[in-house]
Amino acid sequence: MPSADHDLGPQHLADPSRPVRREPTDRSPEHAEPSRFIPHVQGLRAIAVLAVVLYHFWPARFSGGYVGVDVFFVISGFLITAHLMRELTATGTVRLGQFWGRRARRLLPASLLVLLFCALVAMSPYLTPTSALPNEVREILASTFYVENWYLALNSADYLNHGGDPTTVQHYWSLSLEEQFYVMWPLIMLLAAWVAVKWFRGSRRRAVIIALAAVTAISFVFCVVFTMTDPAPAYFVTFGRMWQFGVGAMVALVPALRIRNAVGSFLLGWAGIAVLVFVIFRFDGQTPFPGYAAALPTLGAAAVIAASNTERWWYPTRLLALRPAQFVGDISYSLYLWHWPLIIIAPSVPFWGLTIYHRVALLGICFILAWLTKRFVEDPARGWKVLTSRPARVTLWASLAAMLAVAGTAGLAWAVNAPAYTDGVRAIQELREDPPECFGAAVVLDTACEGTDFGETILPAPGFAGVDRPTDEQCFVQLNDARPVSCEFGSDAADAPRIALIGDSHAYQLLSTFQRMADENGWHLVTYFKGACPWNTTPLSTPGAFGAACTEWRDGVRAQLAERDLDAVFTAAIATTPYSSAGYDSVQDAAVAGYRDAWGEVLDRGIPVVTVVDNPVWETDPNKCLRTRGMAECDGPRSELMVADDPLRDAATGVAGVTLLDFTDVFCGDETCAPVVGGANVYRDQDHLTVTFADTLAPWYVKALQDALTAGVARAG
Predict the structure, then answer these.
(1) Helix (H, G, I), strand (E, B) or coil at 118
(2) In angstroms, rounded to a whole number, what is the distance separating the alpha carbons of residues 313 and 310?
(3) What 3-state class would DSSP assign to 502?
(4) Which of 326, 460, 618, 649 is 20 to 30 A from 664, alpha carbon to alpha carbon?
């Protein structure tokens, strides 16, 4: 996942090339705003926010809706640069304090209100799982001080934390980036103007255009290269996005780019909208983004802004000025702020579901909250005389005080729940060490446990399942890390059976269980894990650096396995991995062939392979349901949660030396799959098992491996 957008409020703009009269320095900066309104830019704002919101509500239908963020970056670059250039032209400088104060009054009240709401939600164990609290508080703090994009960039390699449920404030990454733009952009423009006057006696405007064009070009190159080499942080880092602001800035600063000719404006405007519609429906999570792909929505947005002619009703400039588009544009900032936390919180609300009716109702609630926030928070705060009638520093100090208050509330949320968090973690450890009889999978697999009823028991508790995960994160490489990192556990005896555990995060979820198995059975365990990269020779369909890193990791693992003396290999993988079908009739055939090819290299050496059919994958973390509803209400349809044709099953069928474990009947009945089995909480997020439940499968893992070790495989002659 990913994504966000932001708003600057209604834009009152005159032609940025027209000088404006100098305002007295003792007047409120609100009076410095030019008065001409540009309706079609406000309508473009509506397209952008709807793209993102609909993408978050229905990601499969609006798979490229995240590009709304890029549209907002272009709009902001256009509006802010135009405003700064007019002031710089008229006065020779930019009153930074007043500019930043105006931005603070415009953006912070609504932003901090939503953050305060999220902090209060975090305080409630009914709405926020206690296991998620530490990360929730950290991100609220990062968002409050507008560094959320850097927090996500620095932690984007942490697949374990961000592979599950995101926080309620993850969307603040783009707001953080834009605030950083507000700080840097006027400084760049002032520096360029000062250099032009001081050293070259040239035009301030020309110097600013050259400086911003250079920043734009360098940022674009950086974005493309960084996306290819390290796409996860590239999505969030500030300099990788500055070129999108720069494109909007060029439209503002270069009059020739604003097309007033009737035919040219008509064609340019509709072409821009067509590009935006195309990327909203055709881009998806596999598109290498931002990179060069971001040029399409960026240039599409710039084209709509540049189309300035409004002569005919069928021109995009006129249609985007219609009242519905203007209304959505007016509330777009608050709509963006509210929609994401409500989406995250809704599944935890009692009696709320995920049906189409619930989603539509929630979307309506988002619009209502956005309008109320615009009407009673955004608009009044911009003209609050206690701030506008005083020097800008009063606004800035008041902003800092408000931010500290929100941060304090987030800290209080942690302080209130910290004892429960500590107790919950301790309870999980005790449960692992001394589970009840016939607990978990034994209810289904052990005939002696038939009929055992745990009632409404759920262990670990739904609020703590998220922390019930392996702790040896150093053994798990992610994203573009291609190092074949291995970890070793268990017996060091020379004659100890040597078992390898290899695969993606669905193999890593078994690590703690296999560590215990190795210790109890005198095995030596060696592991190789890479997120979203199964042990398979078929390339992923994922383009760019991630797919290349997966291939490189596999090559490294293959080379290390060739040098290791192993007695058995266990592998697992998520069934929904996107494989390339090149050279095969279907993706399924490609995946099956890749598994068999990878296994063949160890089978040929007489090393048996044990594998397992993948567990169900839920649409959202079932613990959200379990915290507010009875267990029976949280079951999911088997047809939607289980992949009908797991390539691992097909690959293992009929291959000598390969043992296939299939626990589907443990997870699911004939029609539904359950999130709780034998009193054990099965999942820590939407598709990864808790260590507690994986431990209940240990006897069957052990038996399969012992049988494989005993039988062996006829060694190649």
Answers:
(1) helix
(2) 8
(3) strand
(4) 460
* φ, ψ at 314 (rounded to 5°): -90, 0
Phi, psi of 287 (to 5 degrees): -70, 125
- Residue the block writes with tokens 């007016």: 330
Burial class (CB in 10 A: 0-12, 13-18, 19+), 582: exposed
Measuring CA to CA, which residue among 120, 6, 119 is closest to residue 53?
6
Name the DSSP class of 24. P
Structure tokens of 343? 């989406």
Split at pLDDT 50, 70, 90, the class of 620 is: confident
What pLDDT sits at residue 231?
82
> How far apart are the two ends of the chain, measured CA to CA in Å?
50
Distance between CA atoms of 23 and 32, rounded to whole angstroms? 7
Can you state the angle between helices 172-195 and 204-229, rounded to 10 degrees? 140
Query: What is the Cα Rg of the chain in Å?
Result: 29
DSSP state of 131: G
Q: Coil, helix or strand for 571? A: strand
CA dist 239 and 233 (Å) reads 11
Return left, alpha or beta for 181; rule: phi > 0 is left, psi -120 to 50 is alpha, else beta: alpha
The DSSP string of 662-680 is --HHHHB-SSEE-SEETTE
Give the residue among 164, 167, 134 at the shortest CA–CA distance from 152.
Answer: 167
What is the full DSSP assignment across 92-130? SS--HHHHHHHHHHHHHHHHHHHHHHHHHHHT-TTTS-G
Q: What are the structure tokens assigned to 605, written together?
A: 């050496």
Helix (H, G, I), strand (E, B) or coil at 351: coil
Q: How far apart are CA 409 and CA 345, in angstroms?
A: 18
Whether pLDDT at 190 is above 70: yes
Residue 149 CA to residue 156 CA, distance in Å, equals: 10
- Residue 303 backbone phi and psi in degrees, to 5: -65, -40
Q: Are 416 and 122 in contact (CB under 8 A)?
A: no
Please, is 323 exposed, middle or buried when counting C-beta atoms within 10 Å of its C-beta (0-12, 13-18, 19+)? exposed
pLDDT of residue 23: 36
Q: Residues 348-398: pLDDT tens digits?
A: 887 777 788 999 999 999 999 999 999 999 999 988 888 888 899 999 999
What one-letter code names the amino acid at 310?
T
Taking each continuous run of H as one helix and of E as one strand, the counts in the chain are 30, 11
Cβ atoms 157, 479 nearer than 8 A: yes
Helix (H, G, I), strand (E, B) or coil at 336: helix
- Four-point Cα dihedral 211, 213, 218, 223, nearest 10: 130
pLDDT tens-digit series, residues 105-163:
999 999 999 999 999 999 998 888 888 999 999 999 999 999 999 999 988 654 333 35
Please report, for residues 122, 337, 692, the alpha-carbon distance to residue 160 in angstroms, rounded to integers and kept in the order given: 21, 26, 17
Q: ω before 675 within 30° of 0 (cis)?
A: no
- Across-strand partners of 501? 527, 570
Contact 569/601 with Cβ under 8 angstroms?
no
* Residue 377 confidence (pLDDT): 96
Q: Are 498 and 527 in contact (CB under 8 A)?
A: no
